[in-house]
Amino acid sequence: MKLLVGYDGSKVSEDALKLAQKRANTFKADLVIVTSLEQSPTLQKEDIDKAEGKLENLRTPFKADNIPCETHASVNYLSPGEDLVQFAKDNAIDEVIIGVR
């Protein structure tokens, strides 16, 4: 089983990560954490680097629980919602967990 968590740095997405950790432990699932950055003239390489660094730090609690965890910073012209759906389709994701603000 593969779980995808849409992460944007908000408190709600932090809560979604906690839920995903419980579900991954329960179902022995692999976890994929994705941050979607919409391509725009104002998006800088530093923004992408910052997002990738944050994602890498998020892996620590999953490693401690022996949960396989990948992270991806996705940059394209899709909205974050469309991007997560496309990523899920392209990567055979079984369940998507997102926080709603």
Q: Which helices and strands, and how do they pair?
A:
Layout: E1 2-6, H1 11-27, E2 30-38, H2 45-58, H3 60-64, E3 69-76, H4 80-90, E4 95-97
Parallel strand pairs: 1-2, 1-4, 2-3
What does this 3D model show about the protein?
- The protein has 101 residues and is an alpha/beta fold.
- It has a single domain, classed as Rossmann fold (3-Layer(aba) Sandwich), CATH 3.40.50.
- Helices cover 47% and strands 25% of the residues.
- It has helices spanning 11-27, 45-58, 60-64, 80-90; strands at residues 2-6, 30-38, 69-76, 95-97.
- The chain has a 4-stranded parallel β-sheet with strand order 3-2-1-4, with helices on both faces.
- β1 (2-6), α1 and β2 form a beta-alpha-beta unit.
- The protein is globular, with a radius of gyration of 13 Å.
Strand-residue proportion: 15-25%
In total, the number of strands is 4
Number of domain units: 1
Main pleated sheet: 4 strands, parallel
- The name of the CATH architecture is 3-Layer(aba) Sandwich
Short synopsis of the structure:
The protein has about 100 residues and is of the alpha/beta class. The protein has helices at about 10-25, 45-60, 60-65, 80-90; strands at about 1-5, 30-40, 70-75, 95.
